[in-house]
Amino acid sequence: MKLAHNGIQLSFDIAGAGPLQFLFVHGLGGDRTHFAPQMEYFARQGRALNAELRGHGESDKPQQAYSIEGFADDLVFLCNRQQITKPIIVGQSMGGNMALEIAARYPDFPAGLVLLDSGVLFPASAGTVFAGYLEGLRGANFADEVRKIVADSCLPTDRCRAHVEQTFLATPQHVLVSTFTSLFPWDVHRARECAQACRVPVLYIEAAHRLADLDRFAELCPQLVTAKAVGSGHFLSLEVPEQINPMIDRFISLYVRRPG
Q1: Residue 3, exposed/middle/buried by CB under 10 A (0-12, 13-18, 19+)?
Q2: How far apart are CA 47 and CA 61, in angstroms?
Q3: In what residue span(s) does the AB hydrolase-1 domain sit (predicted)?
């Protein structure tokens, strides 16, 4: 399905019925296939919307600046138009940043957040690595840099690597560069404020490589619950859904207030 927001066609899937509501948000270079295992699983429990960010998948890919704030606006628009109310927002990587942005700006909107290996409050070591990635994405060897980023993000045992590489390479260079450029300013200027403003339950599931200062996150957001996937790189929604889905189930049963 598609809906136009300010002239930009946004692609999404919607499925299921019931009191629980879900919003799934892929990360940079992804598309809605990154949450296909979760859509199949959670649409049996409630109504689920699996969004494709502008610039990604089958959504429009205009030449413009891309930002966490802009993506968040698109997601709230889609939910409002599809009557998705009080969703549990599940975001992988940068999708988790958007979940926090939404929770801070629209405190009554979500019922809870699940962040899958999101780069929130980056460790100090990430700056140099990410600056190198951005330089490579801007260059003539764009496709090689994309493959390097995906390889660095995956474990050698990850079965999803080829698929992830395919979705990254299908994302235009101008989209990846602009979005990547916005990530560190958001982390510096908004992440702390958003974490502090969040009032709903939050689950953070970490993969193999640490991308967040979880101790600092917990100080800012005392309701934070953390977990770690076993044997998965960054794209854990695809790689180990048999671990991720039950963790989300348990989080909902213990911490998220059900409708009614």
Answers
A1: middle
A2: 27
A3: 22-150
pLDDT for 260 equals 61
For 205, the 3-state DSSP assignment is strand
Question: In this predicted model, which residue has the larger pLDDT, 168 or 209?
Answer: 168
Name the residue with tokens 């330089």.
135
How far is residue 56 CA from its own chain's centroid?
13
Return left, alpha or beta for 83; rule: phi > 0 is left, psi -120 to 50 is alpha, else beta: left
CA distance 125 to 128: 6
The reported pLDDT for the residue numbered 194 is 98
Q: Does the pTM exceed 0.85?
A: yes
Contact 113/198 with Cβ under 8 angstroms? yes
Contacts of residue 242, Cβ cutoff 8 Å, sequence gap at least 6: none
Task: Give the Cα separation of 24 and 89 in Å (integer).
Answer: 6
Which amino acid makes up residue 78? Answer: L
List the structure tokens of 80: 């409002």
Per-residue pLDDT reduced to its tens digit, 81-132:
999 999 999 999 999 999 999 999 999 999 999 999 999 998 877 878 888 9
Arithmetic mean of pLDDT over the chain: 96
Tell me which H or E stretch contains 39. helix 36-42
Q: φ and ψ at 145, to 5 degrees?
A: -70, -40
Q: pLDDT digits over 135-150, tens only?
A: 999 999 999 999 999 9
Residues 6+ apart with CB under 8 A from 243: 229, 230, 232, 236
